[in-house]
């Protein structure tokens, strides 16, 4: 626990801070939406990778989750979570860790999109004498991995998995480039339709498809009809970020994560203010670069969270951030030692630069959340 009455002015910078009330509000917003749509929410822990953050997403009790590493799966299993989907294509070398979790009574679903992976899973299951529940990744938009819903490989994988087949998983990754509410609704509908069609193809062949899983932060907030879907996955929403704000999924005021930095120098001839927050603190992610408004490496606020007009992190080396003014705004007078908060482009990437988060409530630091590390 932080010392009594510690504030954002006390710890050494740079450090990551989470506004608890905003994270709580973000979690409740999506939980209500999924309840209204009648589907289960399986939050993705990849953004925060912290047990207390995931507890917010499940109203304080362990529930179904999605993870991006087996280290997350193991840490959450140790904390009472028993229903876990490992949503990265399975490396056969990692199957012994999956089997160890299954033997503890933890349900761990693996993800795959090839007959080779399916063969490795069934061989490992047969040798271990247990079922390894597996989801076939289906590609709905060409964003990353997966088989097409009408590809003969879908059925070939399903047959190879046999008793290990658990269903299908779809991720509308291109929704992160859907710049209007209508486009996001269309992406959500397409994601749903592809997932339902793939599951039905498997069922028509007498194969099991109990899980029909979809999700991304944009489509989870845009979907208005999830008929045929059993669960929705999303993770970024617990913190949100400038990419999501640029898409209109949230407001800048909803961003729960920021990085506190300190002014350490000035280059008036170049219009620069220097801080101790470089890409090691902010990440190199430039996710807003292709949006209507490029937010550089992040927007700048004072310690109260009020944005400083026109001030943007436009450059970042390893340990230095460069702040400049845009849109005709004057460069503010910020003396050396001034503390600022930087709102990130991509919360997942910025969070990954930090081993822990300081938790802020009403201007005071009340707790520290540790991030789960490792793979």
Topology:
Elements lengths: L14 E5 H18 L2 E4 L7 H7 L7 E3 L2 H9 L4 E7 L5 H9 L3 E6 L2 H14 L5 E5 L13 H10 L3 E6 L10 H24 L6 E4 L2 H6 L8 E4 L7 H6 L9 E11 L4 E4 L3 H4 L16 E3 L5 E10 L4 E5 L13 E5 L3 H5 L4 E6 L2 E7 L5
Parallel strand pairs: 1-16, 2-9, 3-4, 4-5, 5-6, 6-7, 7-8, 8-9
Antiparallel strand pairs: 1-10, 10-11, 10-15, 11-14, 12-13, 12-15, 13-14, 16-17
Helix pairs in contact: 5-6
Distance between the termini: 27 Å
Overall structural class, as computed from helix and strand content, comes to alpha/beta
Query: Which range best describes the helical content: under 10%, 10-25%, 25-40%, 40-55%, 55-70% or over 70%?
Result: 25-40%
Helix tally equals: 11
Please write the string of helix (H) and strand (E) elements.
EHEHEHEHEHEHEHEHEHEEHEEEEHEE
Gyration radius (Cα, Å) is 22 Å
Uncertain regions spanning at least 5 consecutive residues: none
User: What's the story with the biggest beta sheet?
Assistant: 8 strands, parallel
Major beta sheet, strand line-up: 2-9-8-7-6-5-4-3
Shape: elongated
Mean pLDDT, all residues? 97
Strand content: 25-35%
Using DSSP, what is the number of strands?
Answer: 17
Molecular structure report:
A hairpin with a 2-residue loop joins strand 16 (356-361) and strand 17 (364-370). By secondary structure, the protein is α/β, with parallel strands linked by helices. The mean pLDDT is 97. The radius of gyration is 22 Å and the shape is elongated. The chain contains eleven helices and 17 strands. The strands form two sheets. An eight-stranded parallel sheet has the order 2-9-8-7-6-5-4-3. A six-stranded antiparallel β-barrel has the order 10-11-14-13-12-15. The protein has helices at 20-37, 51-57, 70-78, 95-103, 115-128, 152-161, 181-204, 217-222, 242-247, 279-282, 347-351; strands at 15-19, 40-43, 65-67, 83-89, 107-112, 134-138, 165-170, 211-214, 231-234, 257-267, 272-275, 299-301, 307-316, 321-325, 339-343, 356-361, 364-370. Helix 5 runs parallel beside helix 6.
């Amino acid at each position: 626990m932080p010392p009594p009455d510690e504030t954002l002015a006390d710890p050494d910078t740079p450090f990551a801070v989470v506004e608890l009330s905003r994270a709580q509000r973000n979690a409740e917003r999506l939980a209500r939406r999924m309840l209204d749509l009648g589907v289960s929410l399986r939050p993705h822990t990849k953004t925060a990778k912290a047990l207390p953050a995931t507890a917010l997403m499940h109203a304080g009790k362990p529930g179904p989750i999605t993870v991006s590493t087996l280290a997350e799966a193991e840490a959450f299993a140790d904390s009472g979570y028993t229903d876990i989907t490992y949503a990265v294509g399975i490396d056969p070398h990692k199957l012994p860790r999956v089997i160890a979790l299954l033997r503890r009574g933890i349900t761990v679903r693996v993800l795959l999109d090839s007959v080779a992976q399916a063969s490795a899973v069934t061989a490992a299951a047969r040798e271990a004498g247990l079922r390894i529940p597996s989801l076939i990744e289906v590609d709905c938009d060409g964003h990353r991995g997966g088989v097409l819903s009408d590809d003969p490989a879908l059925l070939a994988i399903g047959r190879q998995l046999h008793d290990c087949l658990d269903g299908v998983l779809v991720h509308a990754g291109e929704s992160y480039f859907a710049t209007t509410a209508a486009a996001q609704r269309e992406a959500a509908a397409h994601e749903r339709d592809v997932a339902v069609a793939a599951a039905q193809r498997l069922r028509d062949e007498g194969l099991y498809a109990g899980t029909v899983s979809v999700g991304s932060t944009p489509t989870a907030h845009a979907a208005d009809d999830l008929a045929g879907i059993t669960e929705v996955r999303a993770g970024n929403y617990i913190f949100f970020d400038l990419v999501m704000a640029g898409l209109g999924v949230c407001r800048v005021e909803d961003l729960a994560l920021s990085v506190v930095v300190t002014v350490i120098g000035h280059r008036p001839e170049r219009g620069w203010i220097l801080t101790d927050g470089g890409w090691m603190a902010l990440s190199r992610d430039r996710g807003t670069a292709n949006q209507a408004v490029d937010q550089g490496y992040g927007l700048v606020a004072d310690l109260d969270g009020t944005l400083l007009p026109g001030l943007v992190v436009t450059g970042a080396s390893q340990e230095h951030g460069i702040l400049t003014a845009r849109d005709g705004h004057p460069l503010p007078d910020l003396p050396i030692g001034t503390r600022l908060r930087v709102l990130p482009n991509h919360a997942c990437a910025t969070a990954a630069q930090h081993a822990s988060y300081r938790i802020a409530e009403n201007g005071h630091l009340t707790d520290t959340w540790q991030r789960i590390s490792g793979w």
